Amino acid sequence: MTYDLVVVGGGIVGLATAMELLGRWPPLRLLLLEKEPQLASHQTSHNSGVLHSGIYYRPGSLKARTCVAGAKLMVEFCRAHGIPHELCGKVIVATDEAELPRLRSLLERGIANGVAGLSMLGPEGLRELEPHARGIAALHVPGAGLVNYRAVAEAMAELVRRRGGQIHTGARVTRLARQPGAWRIETTAGEMAAPHLIHCAGLQADRLTVMAGGPRDVRIIPFRGEYFELIPSRRGLVRNMIYPVPDPALPFLGVHFTRAIDGSIHAGPNAVLALKREGYRKQDISAADLGSLLTHPGFWRMTRRFWRTGMAELHRSLSKPAFVRSLQRLVPEVRAEDLVPAPGGVRAQAVNLEGALVDDFDLLAGQDAIHVRNVPSPAATASIRIGQMIADLAGSAFALAPPALAELPSATHAQ
Ligand SMILES: Cc1cc2nc3c(=O)[nH]c(=O)nc-3n(C[C@H](O)[C@H](O)[C@H](O)COP(=O)(O)OP(=O)(O)OC[C@H]3O[C@@H](n4cnc5c(N)ncnc54)[C@H](O)[C@@H]3O)c2cc1C
């Protein structure tokens, strides 16, 4: 079975990439491989479902550029494909004086990144938007929204198929061998060949990079994000989304309240070191994943740097009262009995040899393979724009012929 190009990974980034490639190069014989029986089984369907606006990210970074542009593309895609979404806005709440400079710098970042409509609120303004939230100031982000990314991924998969792409689920890539002119791709569902390969493997990104002969310098460290859900009778405590001011040393946003598109209200996620990459319960451990953590020099350097934060996160994971106290800083009326556990997710976060959590997206193009090495949040929001960037990289790195049509179908339009 020979193809022009194989995409590994049926999460939102792999699907957006396949959708864009087929939109630009319609005759491409493209195969997408996904190891699970269902597409979008990992990060894409285990997240907060937030359409981020782009305020958090360093101006000029890939995260900033792709999030702002990607959020617009995502809204267009949802409109074109009838996917429920809502631009309900959110507030980021400062609860003490020490957080005010960080709140102001978020406003400045947002403006620098071109995020529209931002405004600072005092306690009264905050109460008008979120009557149960308390803070000394808040940043209102009207462009933030809600969407179900699994539904988005399903619509993308449908478009990939309609554009002539093939999708194999239940096909785990186990070995990649570079042979003259083509990759030999061994999978649990048989062997395939293609001259070009792009992997968007999320929690397995470092393993696929090494399999495809790429560098070994970053390792995926899994961080579990646990959630609680407000019981229906207490959903009135939150109208839309209430966030804390994040710690600028970490790429995580702090536990927050988000409304899902079905009306449920979730609180979380925390960020606890996970001992299994695709393990969603506290007790899940994988010897291979644990070994991969412990043998990475960057893991030990990260641990030395962040051990206090790590211990605090672990405490909040094991103690519901500690979790509730974090939430009460934002909404004092919330009580432990208002919250029931809800399914969590595991983030794929690349950590380098120095122990730094790789802050920006990392897309690495070689002559015959593109390695998508780090696409944590806001990559679901930004996925369509990331897919376009990967297609740009593929066009030049793989020397794909220029698109035949003068007027290309936009990836966002149904066709
Ligand atoms: C708790 C949490 C909350 C988040 N909240 C948000 C949010 O609100 N907004 C936002 O924009 N982003 C959010 N994110 C981030 C976002 O979900 C991810 O950045 C995004 O889903 C990444 O997509 P992906 O396709 O790279 O990864 P994934 O969805 O994990 O997909 C990777 C796929 O590759 C497959 N794969 C791996 N190895 C192989 C192999 N060997 N062979 C074949 N297939 C393979 C996997 O099975 C998987 O399906 C959140 C993430 C988490 C975990």
Describe it:
The chain is an alpha+beta fold. It has three domains: 5-44 and 150-218 and 360-397, FAD/NAD(P)-binding domain, CATH 3.50.50; 90-142, no CATH class; 219-357, 2-Layer Sandwich (D-Amino Acid Oxidase, Chain A, domain 2), CATH 3.30.9. Helix content is 32%, strand content 25%. The chain contains ten helices and 21 strands. It has helices at residues 12-24, 62-81, 100-112, 123-129, 149-162, 205-211, 287-294, 297-318, 320-328, 379-397, and strands at residues 5-8, 30-33, 50-51, 85-86, 90-94, 119-121, 137-141, 145-147, 166-168, 173-179, 182-187, 190-194, 196-199, 219-230, 241-244, 256-259, 265-268, 272-273, 339-351, 362-365, 369-374. Strands 5, 6, 7, 14, 15, 16, 17, 18 and 19 form a nine-stranded mixed β-sheet that branches. It has a six-stranded mixed β-sheet with strand order 9-2-1-13-21-20. A three-stranded antiparallel β-sheet has the order 3-8-4. Helix 1 (12-24) links the parallel strand 1 and strand 2 (30-33). The chain starts with a strand and ends in an 18-residue tail after the last helix. Flavin-adenine dinucleotide (FAD) binds next to helix 1, strand 19 and helix 10.
